[in-house]
Amino acid sequence: MKKYILITGSPRKGANSDAICEKLKVQMESNGCQAQIFRLEDKSVNRCLACDYCKSHDGCIQKDDASTLIGELSECDGAVFIAPIYFGSIPGSCKVLTDRFYSLFNPAKGRVAADPSRKLGVVLTCGGSPEEAVRPVGEFVSTCFALAGFGDHKTLVFPGQNAKDAFSANEDYQKQTEELGKWLME
Asked: pTM of the entire structure?
């Protein structure tokens, strides 16, 4: 059974990121896959200490939910990172999580090779930012996940999503999300 991890990074419960996450979870489970949700705001994720413990040991010195997630990411078939854009970037809690991917970068031990069969979906919602301004954020997130061995990625940007229920009211964005789910499970 294929296993997917869905990471939602919105600080607002019940917002667009959660609706996107739930849609993908239902789709994956109805296709015989396992889908685990990692709601960042409900977890303990400490900032990177830059202590370099991870350069001489396996993993991070901190044993919080980020360490657990990073370990699970190395064992899953695919992942989806869903977050709103605040002031041109992902929320601070999401950045703290991506900083913890530093523990996967160890030049002395070599990098995990990116596997094209391990796919990453990135879904970014935003209010007034134009799509072309948000795309580089998706590339940044994809680069972080490449450290965990994800080789192929697709990014969806949903502008005009300020209202809490905007995703649920937009059939085009729902269809794009469904297509992303199909692509991930191929």
From this structure: 0.94
| Interatomic CA distance for residues 148 and 46, integer angstroms | 19
For 88-120, how does the pLDDT look when each residue is reduced to its tens digit (9 = 90+)? 899 999 999 999 999 888 766 666 788 899 999
> Could you write out the DSSP letters of every residue in the chain?
--EEEEEE--SSTTSHHHHHHHHHHHHHHHTT-EEEEEEGGGS--PPP----GGGTSSS-S--SHHHHHHHHHTTSSEEEEEEE-BTTB--HHHHHHHHGGGGG--TTT-PPPPEEEEEEEEEEEESS--HHHHHHHHHHHHHHHHTTTEEEEEEEEEES--STTTTTT-HHHHHHHHHHHHHHH-
Asked if 129 contacts 151 with a C-beta cutoff of 8 angstroms, the reply is no
